Each structure stands twice: as structure tokens, then as C-alpha cells.
Amino acid sequence: MSTTQSERLRELLEPLVTSQGLDLEEIAVDSVGRKRVLRVVVDSETGADLDAIADVSRALSAKLDESDAMGEGEYTLEVGTPGAERLLTQPRHYVRATGRLVKFQLAEGAELVARIVAVDDEGLDLEVPGVKGRRPTARRVALADVARARVQVEFNRKDSIDSTGSSDSTGSTDSRTEKDMKEEEEA
């Protein structure tokens, strides 16, 4: 896609996406055989649910139909969200990824996997997981020192831990006592 077409599409579509309470993250036009596919990626502070995606998709489709931004040929419009392993490129992406595990490529060439604890204008407060039973450590990284960052998928994250430290993989805790559990087994 030429820069001119990309810029024209962004100028045309971004105000419409913003009016729907979403951010326009990415626009891409790909050729699939003889057809073209216009992929539009949107997001928001609270995420974009299916209703919001459907609403913005209808609005974008109507706007594209009344303009010549895609030219004369046939194309398919696909509207979606960034996905689970999104690439973090804007400060707002880091804010949205607070609490998530992220793989960082640092400008000096080092690699770091850490959880984002807080974000401000200058940088990131991170929690680096401990290795072999060691405690996690805190680390501060300037945004300018991040060459690339991608959210990591966690299948067994334990978000919620009760006072005894026990939790299951869904993050729920079991507050029953041993006596309660024994009584349930006997019943």
C-alpha cells in the first residue's frame, strides 16, 4: 500500500473511529489473489467488545462506499482488535498492558521479560520475575530504551492469592476450611 493511500485512508477513517470511542491502531491493505483486503485494527482503554467492532465496521463500510479511497476494484473490510500478543508501539499501549507480562528488546541489545507495574511519561516500572525460587525484582526502564516490546500470553497466571497463598490457575481462591471440605466429602 502506498504511503499516499495509507495516509488518505487514515485521514478518512480515523475521525470516524474516534467518534465511536475507539483508537485507530493500524490500517493495512493486502492483496489476496485478485481481491484486496482492508484490515483495520481498533482498540480502546477498556478494550473493544463485539458490539463496538460491529458498529465501527458498519460506519467504516458506509464511509468507504461513499468515497473513492479504495479505488474501483473489489475489496473486503476486516475490522478487529490487536490480539493477545500485540506489539507495543505507543505510550497508550504500555498503559493498556499494565499488569501484563511483556518481552522487551532493549536498545542496547539485551532482552528482558517482565511485568509492567506502572507507566508514566518517562518510562516503565517493571517487575522482573525471580528465577529458581528467588523473589521478583523491581526495575525502571526508560521508554526511549525500548527497541521493541510484545505482550506475552500467560496460560497459568495466578492473579488472586488468598491469605494462605493458595490459588488456582483461574485466579479464584478457595476459602473453605479443611473441616468444611471433609464434611462435603463425607456427605
Overview of the structural elements:
This protein has about 190 residues and is of the alpha+beta class. Strand 2, helix 2 and strand 3 form a beta-alpha-beta unit. The protein has a five-stranded antiparallel β-sheet. It is elongated and about 60 Å long. The termini are far apart. It is built from four helices and eight strands. The C terminus is likely disordered.
State the helical fraction.
25-40%
- The whole-angstrom Rg is 22 Å
Global mean pLDDT: 81
Shape from CA axes? elongated
* Strand portion: 25-35%
Widest β-sheet, arrangement of strands = 7-6-5-4-8
The major beta sheet can be summarized as: 5 strands, antiparallel
Overall number of strands? 8
Give the helix/strand class. Answer: alpha+beta
Count of helical stretches? 4
Poorly predicted runs are: 160-187
Q: CA-to-CA gap between the ends?
A: 67 Å
**SSE order, one letter for each helix or strand:** HEEHEHEEEEEH
